[in-house]
Specification:
The protein is an alpha+beta fold and 581 residues long. The chain has two domains: 422 residues, MFS general substrate transporter like domains (Growth Hormone, Chain: A, Up-down Bundle), CATH 1.20.1250; 127 residues, Jelly Rolls, CATH 2.60.120.10. Helices cover 70% and strands 8% of the residues. A four-stranded antiparallel β-sheet has the order 3-10-5-8. Strand 1 and strand 2 form a beta hairpin. The N terminus is likely disordered.
């Protein structure tokens, strides 16, 4: 599931990288290939200092957070039963749903690194306060209020982290792999955290679990502090969209994430799939407790056992999702993962027993990374960077609201139609949209595949600092030209209207009849006239039959000027070439 800890934002069982993400597939059948591909993706993530730090920060924080979440839910259950847990979860999640889009605006207004660090430290202080309240025997309401406020602050963290992640990667496969690594780490945390929480509650006290969580938030902040990525934003550049947002005011700007989702049919479809799944995710807080008490016979402490079993499935599913990072089946796998949240529930409906509870938890866990990894990657690929934090904030708010709905209605469903009837309703609710949207998801996958010419552009130093989405946008509008040997591609003094990249063949660059250089496959020319806004400064002639791809003037200039490092690289090339002329 897209799980929910008691303190933070959604748990999405969810610096450039220059190494290849997928080595040749090893022998040994499908399992061997999957393991090899998963390891290749993870290795590409872990060898990068920035990605390694953010993953370790997530790991430390999530283990403590899930231990703390288990402690809070068990403590609340022993204090007021399932009714208190369900009511508190519903109220807290509704508040978080309202705050998430507002807080996510910070991810687009301030440096995302600073937003992450501040969020970690504030949550550490709040958990420390909750620990003190427990020690002094404060009223139940006071402790639940602090846990609620901690969760409100946590809604800022995840949108900022996911909005930041694309700027730390170079390729779409690396972005999927990074999301997959996050999902696998969270799955491990979801396995270890509840088990650790249950163990510490049994052997020590709830207060010890709280102290552990405060320490893990500090750990996370320290690791994020050490990340020094290349900033792809161009702070001095403004566009008409930003001006329009400013003129609409703060509230409209905060709502712009919802507006962007509503205007994009694909994002709307993803929102429907995710939100139906999170209704079930919210309900698990209640029905997992019922599983533990009524079917497993372990009492409320068995919640940690059920969650840990779910974590085992999520770990396996995480490696499966990572292994498929290069398959470009993001939306199809998302629909599959969503469907896996319906079928396992029907197992328990058909035969309520410890065996089916364990099987359902494993299958739900397996499907969860397929949802989380692909959801995050699809949004990162479809939404522009300038509103990415707000889009994730809008998703966060919608998902929290539907989780709150699930937490609220599940006790009433159990009272109304019993556990088996309630699970049947949930299974139909999440399974129907997944099946209905599957054809459209498969069509979306076709559009998410990198267009022809993407890899050629990525190898050019001018475009290397750009996000994968920006390079793909250029590749979609590439022109193509074939030039026979001896034919001029462009002439000195002509209008500068295109940027050229050589696919195959060779060209000679001359100025006033003097040969300056020859260029072959993967090399480029035409940037000087575009950057300096002057006529062509040289003549380029094909030495042999040559195939070229072209980037239109405005497309080239818009893309390069949007990324400070790309503009610097382009100007450096132009200056060096002009100096040699």
């Amino acid at each position: 599931m897209i799980g929910r800890s008691a303190t933070g934002g959604l748990s999405r069982k969810g610096t450039h990288v220059t190494v290849e993400t997928h080595p040749p597939a090893p022998r040994g059948g499908a399992v061997g290939r999957a393991v090899g591909e998963a390891w290749g993706s993870l290795r590409a993530v872990l060898v990068n200092p920035a990605l390694r730090r953010i993953q370790l920060a997530l790991a430390g924080s999530m283990v403590g957070d899930w231990a703390y979440g288990t402690a809070v839910v068990v403590w609340a259950y022993t204090t007021g039963g399932a009714e208190l847990v369900g009511s508190w979860m519903a109220i807290r999640l509704l508040l978080m749903a309202l705050v998430a889009p507002v807080g996510a605006n910070l991810a687009d207004r301030f440096e995302r690194k600073h937003v992450l660090i501040t969020t970690d430290l504030v949550r550490a202080l709040l958990v420390a306060l909750a620990t003190v309240l427990l020690f002094v025997g404060a009223p139940t309401l006071a402790i639940l209020v602090v846990a609620t406020v901690t969760g409100l602050v946590g809604t800022i963290f995840r949108p900022a982290q996911m909005a930041w992640l694309p700027s730390l990667t170079n390729k779409p496969e690396e972005l999927t792999a990074a999301n997959g690594a996050s999902s696998t780490i969270e799955s491990l945390a979801f396995f270890l955290g509840p088990a650790l929480g249950a163990l510490l509650i049994a052997t020590t006290s709830v207060e010890v679990v709280f102290v552990l969580n405060a320490a893990t938030f500090v750990w996370s902040a320290i690791l994020v502090l050490g990340i020094h990525p290349v900033d792809r934003d161009a702070p001095d550049e403004e566009n008409d969209d930003d001006d329009a947002e400013d003129s609409r005011g703060a509230l409209a700007e905060m709502a712009s994430g919802f507006v962007h989702i509503a205007r994009d049919r694909n994002l709307t479809m993803i929102a429907i799939l995710i939100c139906t799944q999170t209704v079930v995710a919210g309900a698990t807080v209640v029905f997992n407790l019922v599983f533990a008490v009524d079917i497993l016979g372990t009492g409320p402490e068995g919640l940690g056992i059920v969650d840990s079993i779910f974590g085992v499935g999520a770990i396996v599913g995480g490696f499966f999702a990572i292994a498929r990072a290069s398959k470009n089946r993001l939306a199809g796998d998302l629909a599959l993962g969503t469907a896996l949240w319906s079928l396992p529930l029907l197992l328990v409906v058909a035969w309520p027993s410890p065996v089916t509870v364990v099987a359902a938890a494993i299958l739900l866990g397996f499907g969860n990374p397929l949802v989380d990894v692909n959801f995050a990657t699809i949004v990162q690929r479809l939404a522009p960077d300038r509103v990415l934090g707000r889009v994730f904030g809008a998703f966060e708010g919608a998902m929290i609201a539907t989780m709150a709905l699930g937490s609220f209605i599940m006790p009433h469903l159990i009272d109304w139609v019993g556990l088996r009837g309630g699970l049947t309703i949930l299974a139909v609710l999440v399974g129907a949209p997944a099946l209905l949207f599957l054809p459209r998801c498969l069509r979306l996958d076709a559009t998410l595949r990198p267009p022809e010419g993407t890899e050629l552009l990525r190898r050019i130093p001018i475009f290397a600092p750009m996000s994968p989405a920006a390079v793909e946008s250029l590749a979609r509008d590439l022109g193509h030209r074939h030039v026979a040997a001896g034919e001029a591609v462009l002439r000195e003094g002509e209008e500068s209207d295109l940027f050229f990249v050589i696919e195959s063949g060779r060209v000679e660059v001359t100025q006033d009849g003097r040969v300056l250089r020859q260029e072959g496959p993967g090399e480029f020319f035409g940037e000087i006239g575009l950057l300096r806004d002057v006529p062509r400064t040289a003549t380029v002639t094909a030495v042999e039959d040559t195939d070229l791809v072209t980037v239109a003037r405005e497309d080239f200039l818009d893309a390069v000027r949007e990324v400070e490092e790309s503009l610097a690289a382009a100007n450096d090339v132009a200056t060096r070439r002009m100096g040699r002329a």
